[in-house]
Design a protein that fits this description.
With 547 residues, the protein is of the alpha+beta class. It is built from 11 helices and 13 strands.
Length: 547
């Protein structure tokens, strides 16, 4: 066995793997064989015990029926004398009494050990146990005795394990010698198998290294009629083609040098042109910068136009809301004037009645004046960010549209956290809430919902302040739900919607107040969700990070 080949890693790996596989198979065979051999020996002893027990039962049947104990003892002693493996025989009567027979002696027992008693079952059984009689490990066989279908008792026979242990030892030695032989054979087979697999690979590696060093005249000398032989032919063909390609490459290299000289000249000309283009590009960049600034100004102007359009659309909504807010006080004021006139006609107009009517009229005009102030404050722009309570702005905004809701029998439910504060522009935030509430109102009216309802909530979730506005108008069509915040996109009839209300709402929430607004469909209708980061939690987090 050559030791040089063991220096190659691939040979060692194949040899080790194949040896390990064969040794695993041998050991597995040995491990599985031992229990089978033990079982076979035990079955032989079981067969012997059954034969002896059947013999005793057959010969002593009359003596057992007549309870002739002397005949039973005499026969059992003869059985023990004829079979050296039998250590003792115990006849157990079901109605009580035990006859123990050993070599050259016997005795009557009143009881037997609980361990032996447990073996007295309706079926035969055998066990290897430590005998209290023989004071050593024995093969204990228990045989049930029946006469004419009636249980008479049991025969307990204990066999010596000397022959069993001897057979087991012989089996172990045979297995040991067989394992050594198979191990040696496995090593030899593994060596030749690893050599058969690795030698061509090592030859390929050696040849490949020589080819890599530039020797293209080398060839692989492997003459085998299998895949390795085919691989050797392909490898030699590859080297031949590499040689041809190398010759072509040399020729191409010479041609390339000539072309490089030509290209160098062309590159010099191109560089001159490039310098000229660079100057032109600098001029273009200056003009482009100017164009970008102009375009930014145009975009700003367009945004201002959108804001103005949004405010004008909101103002149109407000005029309708003012009309709803003033309708009731104007009716009441008309009734006050009529009452004064009727009191005058009836002659009941006195100073007290006139004073009471004037007070009532003053209250109504003050209420109408307050409505004007509320709507004027809505359109007053905020110049700087400020902290404001979410619930106050929502309640103020609801007052602006509440009359319109009542006029169309729309129920508005509020569930607001009074402590929540955010930083931003109160009037712009109010415009966002008003836009969503107005859209909900229009959807409920347009779809003629029987019991129109709108729910507005504010609450804190983790580090987020959340405002949700939900209606029961059936939701937004899935095909357009991702477009509703686009500028000029509207589902309303021409003249009834500008398509900029939700776009401006998104601009206000996300650009101006660094929040987030989105629309989803709930069980009964659309849900608009507005979220802001809780400034107090953010400040605590920054303070903790600083420490």
């Amino acid at each position: 066995m050559s030791l040089v080949i063991f220096k190659d890693k691939i040979f060692r790996n194949i040899f080790a793997f194949f040896s390990l596989v064969m040794m695993t198979i041998i050991l597995t065979y040995g491990i599985l064989l031992i229990p089978l051999q033990k079982k076979t020996i035990l079955e032989i002893m079981h067969s012997e015990g059954k034969t002896v027990a059947n013999s005793i039962s057959l010969v002593c049947s009359d003596a057992m029926m007549t309870e002739d104990d002397s005949f039973i003892v005499e026969h059992n002693m003869a059985v023990i004398d004829n079979s050296p493996k039998i250590l003792n025989i115990t006849i157990a009567k079901k109605n009580g009494g035990y006859i123990l027979t050993q070599k050259n002696r016997w005795r009557l027992l009143d009881s037997i050990s609980p361990k032996i008693k447990a073996f007295e079952k309706p079926v035969e059984n055998f066990h290897i146990i430590r005998s209290e009689i023989a004071k050593t490990k024995v093969f204990h066989y228990t045989f049930p005795v029946r006469f004419s279908g009636i249980d008479w008792g049991w025969i307990h026979i204990e066999f010596s394990l000397d022959e069993y242990n001897n057979n087991i030892n012989i089996m172990y030695w045979h297995l040991f010698y067989m394992t050594l032989g198979l191990f040696a054979a496995a090593l030899v087979i593994s060596y030749f198998f690893a050599k058969y697999i690795s030698e061509p690979i090592l030859l390929f590696r050696k040849t490949a290294r020589m080819v890599a060093d530039g020797n293209l005249n080398i060839r692989v000398n492997i003459n085998r009629k299998d895949e390795i032989g085919e691989l050797a032919k392909d490898f030699n063909n590859m080297i031949k083609k590499l040689f041809i390609s190398n010759q072509k490459l040399k020729h191409s290299h010479e041609m390339l040098e000539e072309k490089v000289k030509e290209r160098t000249k062309e590159l010099e000309i191109t560089n001159k042109k490039l310098k000229q283009k660079s100057k032109e590009l600098e001029i273009l960049n200056r003009d482009l910068d100017k164009m970008v600034r102009e375009e930014i100004e145009k975009r700003r102007a367009q945004e201002q136009i959108l804001i103005q359009q949004s405010r004008q659309a909101a103002m149109g909504e407000m005029i309708g809301n003012i009309a709803h807010q003033w309708r009731q006080p104007l009716n009441a004021l008309g009734l006050v004037l009529q009452n004064i006139y009727f009191a005058y006609k009836m002659g009941e107009l006195d100073e007290e009645f006139l004073k009471r009517s004037i007070d009532k009229g003053n209250k109504l005009t003050k209420m109408m004046s307050k409505t004007i102030d509320d709507f004027r404050n809505f359109f007053k722009p905020n110049k700087a960010k400020e902290n404001f309570k979410v619930s106050k702005i929502i309640n103020d905004t609801i007052e602006l549209i509440e009359a319109s809701y009542i006029n169309h029998n729309i129920e508005l439910f509020k569930e607001l956290d009074e402590e929540l504060q955010i930083e931003g522009y109160p009037s712009e935030f109010s415009q966002v809430i008003l836009n969503i509430l107005s859209n909900a109102k229009d959807a409920l009216i347009e779809r003629e919902i029987e019991k129109p309802k709108v729910y507005i909530k504010s609450f804190k979730k983790d580090d987020q302040i959340v405002i949700t506005i939900e209606d029961n108008a059936g939701g937004i069509d899935k095909k357009i739900i991702n477009k509703i915040f686009d500028p000029y996109f509207t589902t309303k009839e021409e003249g009834k919607g500008t398509g900029i209300g939700l776009y401006m709402s998104k601009m206000i929430v996300e650009n101006n107040m660094k929040g987030k607004i989105e629309a989803v469909n709930g069980e009964n209708g659309a849900i608009f969700i507005i979220t802001f980061r809780d400034k107090k939690i953010l400040q605590k987090t920054k303070t903790a990070d600083t420490f």
